[in-house]
Specification:
Elements (H helix, E strand, L loop, with lengths): L1 E8 L5 H14 L3 E8 L10 H19 L6 E10 L3 H14 L3 E6 L7 H6 L3 E2 L8 H19 L7
Parallel strand pairs: 1-2, 1-4, 3-4, 3-5
C-alpha cells in the first residue's frame, strides 16, 4: 500500500475546510495510508520588510527540511508556482509510478503563505503547480487531497472522474 505524507506549514482554522479535508482523508484511506504533518507557521508582523519575510520563509522551510530528513528514501514533491502542471490523468500516472516502481513512499510539501526558501526548492527537482493563480495554502491542501483521491479513482477505473 502506498504511504502518502503531506507536510505543510500551518493549521487549518476554518471548520468547513477542516470538514472537507477530513472527508477526503477518509476517502483516500481506502487506497493508501495518509498522514498530514502540520508544522507551526511563523508570525508575520504587519508591514514587515522583505528581510523579515525572507527570514520567515527560511525558518519555515528549515522546519520542513528537518522533517524531511526523517524520510530519506521517500519521493518528495514540492507544491510550487514554478512547478510542472499536470492533468488529473498525468498526476494519477505519477502516483502509480511511485506505487509500482519506487519505494511506495511519497511526500507532498506545502509551504507557508510566503512560499519556500530557495534552499528547499533547490533540494528537490519534482515540483507541481496546480495553478498559476495564488491560493491560500490551506485551500491548496484540500485541492491536493481531492486530486490524490481522483488519481486513485482513475487508477482503479472507478466512476468519480468520468
Amino acid at each position: 500500500m502506498l504511504n502518502i505524507k503531506i507536510i505543510c506549514i500551518g493549521k487549518v482554522k476554518e471548520n468547513s475546510l477542516k470538514s472537507l479535508i477530513n472527508e477526503y482523508e477518509k476517502r483516500i484511506s481506502k487506497y493508501a495510508k495518509l498522514e498530514i504533518i502540520e508544522l507551526d507557521d511563523e508570525k508575520i508582523p504587519q508591514n514587515s520588510s522583505d528581510a523579515v519575510e525572507g527570514q520567515v520563509k527560511i525558518t519555515e522551510s528549515n522546519k520542513i527540511i528537518d522533517k524531511l530528513k526523517k524520510y530519506p528514501n521517500a519521493d518528495v514533491i514540492l507544491l510550487d508556482l514554478k512547478g510542472k502542471s499536470y492533468s488529473s490523468e498525468e498526476f494519477a500516472q505519477k502516483i502509480d509510478y511511485t506505487q509500482t516502481y519506487s519505494n511506495s513512499n511519497i511526500i507532498f510539501v506545502i509551504g507557508g503563505s510566503l512560499g519556500m526558501s530557495q534552499e528547499l526548492l533547490n533540494m528537490y527537482n519534482d515540483k507541481i503547480c496546480f495553478s498559476k493563480m495564488t491560493f491560500p495554502h490551506q485551500l491548496i491542501r484540500l485541492f491536493l487531497l481531492e486530486q490524490i483521491f481522483r488519481a486513485f479513482k482513475i487508477l482503479n477505473n472507478e466512476t468519480y472522474h468520468k
